Amino acid sequence: MSNEENKMGRRQSLFLAVLGVGSASALALGGCKGNSGSSGGGTQAAAGTGCDTPIDEDSKSKRRTFQYVEKAADAAKNCGACAQFLAGKYGSCGGCGLFSGPVKTEGGCLAFAPKAAGAPAKP
Fold first, then answer.
1. Separation of alpha carbons 9 and 64, rounded Å
2. Planar angle of CA 65, 77, 68, nearest 5 degrees
3. Do the strands 93-96 and 85-90 form a parallel or antiparallel pair, or are they unpaired?
4. How many CB atoms lie within 10 A of CB 22?
5. What 8-state DSSP symbol labels residue 51?
6. pTM for the whole thing?
């Protein structure tokens, strides 16, 4: 195995380990969620069908792992140009195939994968 192949293997292993630890942490903390200032009987969870749709803890953890931001540093690698982008899934915001909740077209993350040339947007 060449040195470069070994480096890629270690990088991928580290990424998967971090993803696993983040997911396990989210699951472990899932039962310990505090009331984040909402009053009422759970109406906030039902509210929002667009960009204001609440995001669950597992999705928040995945967003941190993939370093999702609402405005991509490189406009050519934004969510709207990604193969994982689900246009219109949350009204004016789209969705992502890697985590739940709304994402902005101009957002971005580490998992960017360009759409195939001429590929239609996923519904």
1. 22
2. 25
3. antiparallel
4. 18
5. T
6. 0.57
Coil, helix or strand for 50?
Answer: coil
**Token code pair at residue 112:** 């960017």
**Straight-line distance from the first to the last Cα atom of the chain, in angstroms, rounded to the nearest whole number:** 42
pLDDT digits (tens, 9 = 90+) for 43-80: 333 345 688 999 999 999 999 999 999 999 999 999 99
Provide the pLDDT confidence category of residue 117 given band limits of 50, 70 and 90.
confident
Enter the tokens of residue 87. Answer: 């246009």
The 3-class secondary structure across 52-111, one letter per residue, is CCCCCHHHHHHHHHCCCECCCCCHHHCHHHECCEEEEEECCEEEECCCCCCECCCCECCC
Of 68, 55, 64, which Cα lies nearest the Cα of 100? 55
The identity of residue 86, as a single letter, is L
Q: Give yes or no for residue 15 having a pLDDT over 80.
A: no
The class of domain 46-123 in CATH terms is few secondary structures
